[in-house]
């Protein structure tokens, strides 16, 4: 799926294909890590306590999905704040610090 990006991109969008691939790869790796970590943690907890492993794996899967949602929400919040600071800096740079650059 990641290899077919340039075939469907327009001429203007072809420049963004590599960036989108990187973003999708990062999100996919994060999702796999959160879910696998939750499953492994649930299995280890069940084996130590002597409980049913299938129930613990299902509970670990749910915890991994919740962890992924939290990581996504925190990342989105941080990137929003960084984006706002970048826009504020660019306006400050153009209109206050270097007014000749805006002409």
Describe the structure.
This protein has 103 residues and is mainly alpha-helical. The chain has one domain (2-102). Helix content is 80%, strand content 0%. The chain contains 3 helices and no strands. It is elongated, with a radius of gyration of 22 Å. The relative contact order is 0.08.
Which properties best describe this structure?
single chain; 103 residues; mainly alpha
What structural category characterises the helix and strand content?
Answer: mainly alpha
Taken together, the total number of domains comes to 1
DSSP strand (E) fraction?
Answer: under 5%
Helical fraction equals over 70%
- Radius of gyration over C-alpha positions, nearest whole angstrom: 22 Å
Order of helices and strands: HHH
Distance between the termini: 44 Å
What sort of overall outline do the alpha carbons produce when their principal axes are compared? elongated
The helix tally amounts to: 3
- Overall mean pLDDT stands at 87
Low-confidence runs: none
Q: How would you characterize the largest beta sheet?
A: none
Number of strands: 0
């Amino acid at each position: 799926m990641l290899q077919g990006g340039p075939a469907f991109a327009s001429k203007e969008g072809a420049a963004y294909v590599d960036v989108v691939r990187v973003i999708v790869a990062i999100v996919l790796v994060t999702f796999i890590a959160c879910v696998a970590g939750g499953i492994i943690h649930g299995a280890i907890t069940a084996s130590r306590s002597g409980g049913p492993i299938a129930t613990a794996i299902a509970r670990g899967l749910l915890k991994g999905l919740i962890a992924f949602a939290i990581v996504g929400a925190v990342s989105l919040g941080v990137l929003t704040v960084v984006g706002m600071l970048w826009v504020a800096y660019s306006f400050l740079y153009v209109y206050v610090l270097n007014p000749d650059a805006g002409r």
